[in-house]
Amino acid sequence: MDHKITTPLTAETIQQLKTGDMVKITGIIYSARDAAHKKLIELIEAGKELPFELNGNVIYYLGPTPARDGQVIGSAGPTTSSRMDKYTPKLLELGLKGMIGKGRRSPKVIQAIVENRAVYLAAVGGAGALLSKCIKSSKVIAFDELGTEAVREMYVEDFPAIVAIDSEGNNIYKD
Amino acid sequence: MREIDVSKITDALCEMCMSINYELSDDMKKALKEAQQKETAPLGKQILKILDENMEIAKTEKIPICQDTGMAVVFLKVGQEVHFIGGPLEDAVNEGVRKGYTEGYLRKSVVSDPLLRVNTNDNTPAVIHYEIVPGEDVEITLAPKGFGSENMSRVYMLKPADGEEGVVTAVVDAVKLAGPNACPPVVVGVGIGGTFEKAALLSKKALARPVDRASEKEHIRKLEEEILEKINQLEIGPAGLGGSVSCLGVNIETYPTHIAGLPVAVNICCHVNRHIVRTI
C-alpha cells in the first residue's frame, strides 16, 4: 500500500503503516548520524535541552555532500542504521517516532519501536543524487563543528521510503 | 630515466576523485543495466530503476552518486626508471585528494584519529599502496571506498584442509552476514593466499578490477562463477529487500601462501563500486 504522510507523525498515521508499504514523506525531518547521536545522548544524560523536539519527530541517518551554489543540499542518501542502534532506544523512549536509514536493526531497537509505537523506514541506499531532489530546504541547527555529521533541519516533499519495521515489530529484512 | 613532476600526480588525482564520484566506469554501468534485465522481483526491479535514474542525475548535474564519497584508496604502480621531482610524492597524492574533494563538493569523511575522531575536513590522508614495477610510467588507480560495505568486510584464516569448499562457504557467509547493510547488489573482491595482510590487500585490488573481467586462471574463474551463483541464491536482492540479483560480480586475486595456511579476505563493495585508472 502507498501512503502520503506528514511529519510530525501522529499515532494514527503510524498505526496505518505496515511493513512493506511505500511512503512519501512531507514535512520537517532532522539529520543525525553517528557523532550527532553520541552528542544527543550526552545532552540527555547531562539533563540539557536538545537542539530539536523529539516528540513525534523523524530522524534521517544522513551525512550529505556539500551543496554547490544554488543547491539546497548535495547527495543525500541514507547511511547504515545499525550504527545508531546503541543510541536509538533512549531516543524512542523520549518521543522520537520515526527513523529513516538503511539495513537491519538490533532486537533491542525493534523492541523499543514496538513499546513506543514508532516506525523504521528504509530509503534506497546509494541513490543520494535522486533523493536530494526531495529536500527543499536545509539548515544546520546544531553541532556545526561536525561538518557533514551536523544536525540539519530539513523540509522534504514526497521523500520516498519503505516501511522496514512497523509499530508491531514486523521486519522487512530476513535473517 | 624519466623525470616526472609530482604536480602531475596531484592534477590527475584531483580530476579522478571528481569524475569517478559523478559517473561510474563502463563495466559497472553495464553490470547495473544487465541487473535491471535479470532481476525478477518487481520491487527489486523498481529499486534498480531508481539507481539508474540516480546515476543519470549524478552524471548530468555533477551531484555525487552516493553521499558516501569514500576514503580515497590509491594504488600507485611506479616504473623503476621514474625520478620524481617537485616535492614528496605522498604529499602530492594527498594534495590531489584534498583538491578533488574540496573543489568537487565531495564529502569529507575522514577523521584524523580512529578514537579521538576529529574530521580532517579535506578527506585526507588517502590510503596509498605503492608498487615498484619495470618501466618509466606511473599508473594511478583510485578506488574511493564507502564504509557501509567496508564495515561488512572480513578476513578468514582457513586451514589448507578447508580447500575450495571452505573458501566458497567463507565468502558466501560474509555476504549473507552483510545482507542489506552493504547496499546490494554488491561487488565482492576476494583475496586468497599470501599472509593475513596480503590477502586483505588482494581483496581490495580485486574490487578495483573491472567487474566484467574474469580471472585469467581457469580454476579461479570457475570459483568466481560458482560463488556468484551461490550469492545470488541467497536472494538478498536490491537494497536487501529480496530478489534474484544480490551480487553483480565476484573478482578473486590470488598469491602463493604458506604450507600451513589458507588466508581468505572478503572485501565487499556496494553497487557504487568506484575505480578509475590513469597512466602518466
Q: Can you tag this structure with a few keywords?
A:
heterodimer; A: 175 residues; alpha/beta; fumarase; five-stranded mixed β-barrel; 5 helices; 7 strands; 21% helix; 28% strand; B: 280 residues; 2 domains; four-stranded mixed beta sheet; 8 helices; 25% strand; globular
Radius of gyration of chain B: 19 Å
- Helix count of chain A equals 5
Backbone shape of chain B: globular
Distance between the termini of chain A: 24 Å
Largest interface (CB < 8 Å): A-B, 38 and 38 residues
- Would you identify the regions of chain A where 5 or more consecutive residues have pLDDT less than 50? none
CATH-defined architecture of chain A: Alpha-Beta Barrel
CATH superfamily of chain A: Fe-S hydro-lyase, tartrate dehydratase beta-type, catalytic domain
Major sheet strand order of chain B: 4-2-5-10
Strand order of the largest sheet of chain A: 2-3-4-5-7
Derived from helix and strand composition plus strand pairing, the structural class of chain A reads alpha/beta
How does this structure look, described?
The complex is a heterodimer of chains A (175) and B (280). Chain A is α/β, with parallel strands linked by helices. Helices cover 21% and strands 28% of the residues of chain A. A 5-stranded mixed barrel of chain A has the order 2-3-4-5-7. The two termini of chain A are 24 Å apart. The model of chain A has no long low-confidence stretch (mean pLDDT 97). A 4-stranded mixed beta sheet of chain B has the order 4-2-5-10, with helices on both faces. The mean pLDDT of chain B is 97. Helices cover 40% and strands 25% of the residues of chain B. Chain B has 2 domains: 99 residues, no CATH class; 126 residues, no CATH class. Chain B has 280 residues and is α/β, with parallel strands linked by helices. Chains A and B meet through helix 5 of A and helix 3 of B.
